[in-house]
Amino acid sequence: MQGLIANPDEVKFKEEFIKRYSELTDFEKFKKYSLMFLRKSIRVNTLKTSVEEVVSRLKGKIELTPIPWCKEGFWVKSERRDFGNMLEHQMGYFYIQEAASMIPPIVLNPKEDETILDMCASPGSKTTQIAQYMKNTGVLVANDVATTRLKALGFNLQRMGVSNTVVTMISGRKFSGFEFDRILVDAPCSGMGTIRKSFKTIKMWNPNSIKRLCRTQKQLAKTAFENLKAGGTMVYSTCTTEPEENEGVMDYILNEFENAKLQKISLDIKRAEPIVEFEKDVYSSEVKKCLRIWPQDNDTEGFFVAKIKKNE
User: Among 25, 26, 75, 131, which one is most buried in terms of CB atoms within 10 A?
Assistant: First the structure.
């Protein structure tokens, strides 16, 4: 367990936020973990090397602890903090990636020679992870909406040796007429699972902005499903713990498409019960198949992942 970032008494949570989150989870535990330093973690890039090779190279330099749900992932512990300056990082042997962030590509389960869309790709952590599972075969479309974001994406694709990817810049909501085997929608969100990275998240929390984000998230998820092949798989993920942005979006997709079927996610990970009813909203019991993670569950970021199958 990591140390505290700050004195809990000095960090101000809005009263409305405390009330809301006390109904969703054990608020004191949530607060405790949200105010702790986030454990550093890396993912080995098997496009350039092997897990064994990286473990051997880092032995004696960094303490590595395997992440249970990702065979290429490790929590790292060291006196040094500048992992990005390590030769192995610069060579693209590993990617600095939060442990919960590794889950969506694993759930997506990419195969060789498929056509896959990463709708909100930048900065490329999940894109490069998908590419390594595809073994640089097939076609991976990495999309984002802003030029500034594409710079980081392009740099990381190059550093990690990804060669099967086409980079596009278009609003995710404007995709039409395509057929992908698999689609990842790592949607823009309120980021309430990432308080450990920035206290600004607490200050910026606003129920009205969440409602605006929900509209965008539903549009992105709807567009993605429409561009999915029959029999294909879509993964929707966020780094927020807000029900409206998670279970609420999945409930919308289930109501919008009769052939959308949520799939149970089996991973070696502690999880919380998905939210089926909150305030005035009642969601389909099918959302219980989704993966909801609070920061206190695995000492990670808070995260939400849903796996949707498009029936024939």
Answer: 131
